[in-house]
Amino acid sequence: MEKTPIIEVQHITKKFKGLTAVKDVSFSIREGAITGMIGPNGAGKSTTFNMICGYYPPTEGKIFFRGEDITNKKAYEYTSMKIARTFQIMKPLKNLSVLENVVASCYFGHAAARSQHEARERAMDILQFTGLYEKRHVLSKDMGTPDQKRLEMARALATKPELLFLDENMAGLNPAETESAIELIREINKSGVTIFLIEHIMQAVVSLCENVIVLHHGEKIAEGTPEQVMNDPLVMEVYLGAKGGKDHA
Amino acid sequence: MSVNEKAVRAYRRNTIICLGGILAVFLLIPAFVKNPYTLNVFILIFYTSTLSMAWNLLGGMTGQNSLGHAAYMGLGAYAASMLITKAHLNPWLSGILGMIAVGLVAGVIFYPCFILKGPYFTLVSIAFGEALRQFIINSAFFGRASGIGLPFGRDSWLDFRFGSKEPYYYVGLVMLLLVYLVMKKIERSRMGYALRTIREDEDAAAAIGINPMKYKIMAVVVSAMVAGLVGFFYASYIRYIDPEMMIQAKSTESVLPAVVGGAAFVEGPLVGGLIMVPLSEFLRANFSKILPGINMLLYAVALLAVIRFRPAGILGWYSHSKLKTFIDTKILKKPPIEVIEEVELARRQRKEA
Hints:
The structure holds 2 protein chains of 2 kinds.
Chain A: E1 7-16, E2 19-29, E3 34-38, H1 45-52, E4 60-65, E5 68-69, E6 83-85, H2 98-106, H3 116-130, H4 145-157, E7 163-167, H5 175-190, E8 194-198, H6 202-208, E9 211-216, E10 219-224, H7 226-230, H8 233-240
Parallel strand pairs in A: 3-8, 3-9, 6-7, 7-8
Antiparallel strand pairs in A: 1-2, 1-4, 4-5, 9-10
Chain B: H1 3-32, H2 36-61, H3 69-85, H4 91-113, H5 119-137, E1 148-149, H6 166-188, H7 190-200, H8 202-207, H9 212-238, E2 240-241, H10 248-261, H11 268-287, H12 294-309, H13 313-318, H14 322-331, H15 337-352
Antiparallel strand pairs in B: 1-2
Helix pairs in contact in B: 2-6, 2-9, 2-10, 2-11, 3-4, 3-5, 3-9, 4-9, 6-7, 6-9, 7-9, 10-11, 11-12
């Protein structure tokens, strides 16, 4: 008998007015693993992600966290359930220093710091872990993309999650930065955090994920190990065009 | 004791000496300045800066720009005055009850309004202020447009009533200091971090577990209560209030010291108030005789100059200026931040051991 998955998504659909962005998608995330979601632009990845994170509720379908229905939970209730997320378009607290950004996170969630000292100390540990310690007194708006992406992760980790959602955390990074980001994600996973990520960079998905879900036009078209989905004829058609290139000149 | 530790202690001591010196100057002013007009200007600085600190909690720290703070102040003044004149309660008790009433009214009114964001919230705050003023103008119970006068009589601390200005000076100064300490405490607390996170990005706030609505309501209630406190002080000082104190221009006056001083800083309203209030009074005293209204024009020019050349306010400029570096290193002898952190850490580790 297999353990209950940490997240179970059942037939979720999202309609924006007339447009169906996500249609009848179901999958589950295994506790302790790294699960990835890929798909071309506009496939509905971010919409799916936002529904699971409580940013907006699905039009139809249900989402379960360790068997508990969390479909209609508000975004701010997630960290107390030990779930944290990052944003694709980084949302650093621009006019606050890197340290203050992380201290703010330490004050909230299921393990909220009770004193200023505790919050600061925990923030320092997380800054060491994510490699931002040297830049702790820099205003977050003055940092480049790679560091802001790291800060997104640091802020999420400061809430002590057991499940971490990463939304395109490597977009815009060069190969060397991607490599160190992959290393960081692996470290986080090793420390016992389940990870669900959306990513465009195949290198990252292949080297990190145990299970990959492929979306296209809002529907799930494949699921399996990275090798399985990469060799799936439908996935190849979606990514490389139809056989013989008839549809795409 | 290590060299670093000594340096940090010396820096702490120097800071306390400097702040103590400034405070001592303010405490001694009434002993030397006997001119009631000058004392009045200081009292004006105290309560305008306090009102501006109330605004700054909502506008500067939370990013919710209210243009209705004169209404909260007026409400506090009216609530306290009604309790004094109609219920014959003790003024101090009336002041506290007035504050609570203002907090409740603000919380109830703004609960639905916080669905609105940015400029829409500002518009509602203007509408609320004007609606409240109109209500009082048209209500016989509140004395309509002719206002309410507070009873005069013998000097008394119990009745918070004095013929001279010195007692008001000290009460105003204490009010300013208390509110400043409360604001400083909030800034460093969980609530302060929540408010600043909301200011920067509401989605990011929700993502780390902050309920934006809850904290915005808390901010508006505290802010309105402080404004109500200022209203109580104003009513006790002037001893006459009318709906005119709630007009839009007065709300703007509560915003200016914070913006000029630097809205991102708790100290911003204090610096701004210390500059803008005397400037406004000086212009009125010296220029309005030459050409009526010219004082307002000059005041506006001064304001525009600050916004154009120092958009982050005076403290925003100061925090990156050579002047600050000079004061920190030469006068206060501030060690590098790394040294301070190191000493802090060592001290805490000793405490735990």
